Amino acid sequence: MPRLEELVTQWPAGALPMTLAERTSRVYDHLAAVYPLSTMLFHSRAHRRALARSGVRDGMNVLEAATGSGEMFRRLVKVNPSGATIGFDLSPNMAARTGRQARRRFPAARTLCQAVDARQMPFRNETFDAAFCCYLLELLSGDDIARTLAEFHRVLRPGCRLTLVLIGQNTAIFNSVYKVAGRLAPAFWGRQVERRVPELIESAQFRLLEDHFVRQIYYPSRVLVAQK
Ligand SMILES: C[S@@+](CC[C@H](N)C(=O)[O-])C[C@H]1O[C@@H](n2cnc3c(N)ncnc32)[C@H](O)[C@@H]1O
């Protein structure tokens, strides 16, 4: 089994334009301490469904992009105690918090969480047996969604699965509120993209396997599982 550090290559030369991403990173950096509450209230049901449908088994090399404060990451470490679980987030505070808490709760597990941009992942081709990405694509431009999906395709082994969680667009009132919130604070809320994602996944050469809508309180999520 390779050492954990061997799964991560050098940070790629030529950083990508930061644009809105720079503000997103700053906003989420400030929210790292309080963000777990929002995840618990609105995301935990979709996280559970994503994990249940992902096909993850103990012993895999598992990647989570945009861990936020690490609630899904800890679920992944828990089911993968003898594999390697690697996470990252653009916000250094989110990544540090996630890494710290995983090490504290699961000291014997092989975990690593660093500040990384999903648009340019520092991993070798075909490194991972499973990848997860929850509530990130809303924060990326159209080009960056395509770039990020291409990165997932590159780092996953053939036949392995990418599990995505998106904010559902199946509730008209929620959509109207989200549109206003997104205009007021685009770096935090982004905009809803869920309806376009199945098509984008297929353009990135994944095959869609599963599609589930989940609701928690009033917050809609869509869980998609795709295979390389
Ligand atoms: C809405 S939160 C979701 C957090 C977590 N995945 C969850 O399910 O609760 C979005 C996260 O994406 C991170 N993020 C935004 N742009 C990113 C990028 N280009 N690369 C990696 N992470 C990014 C933010 O810092 C934030 O922690």
Shape: globular
* CATH class identity: Alpha Beta
- The Cα radius of gyration reads 16 Å
CATH homologous superfamily placement: Vaccinia Virus protein VP39
Number of helices: 8
Stretches where pLDDT is under 50 for at least 5 consecutive residues are none
User: Which architecture would the CATH scheme give at its second level?
Assistant: 3-Layer(aba) Sandwich
How many domain modules?
1
What binds here, in terms of ligands, is: S-adenosylmethionine
Number of strand elements: 7
What is the arithmetic mean of pLDDT?
91
Strand content range: 15-25%
Describe, in short, the structure shown.
The chain is α/β, with parallel strands linked by helices. It has helices at 19-31, 35-54, 71-79, 92-105, 142-155, 172-184, 186-189, 197-203; strands at residues 61-65, 84-89, 110-115, 128-134, 156-167, 207-216, 219-227. It is built from eight helices and seven strands, in the order ααβαβαββαβαααββ.
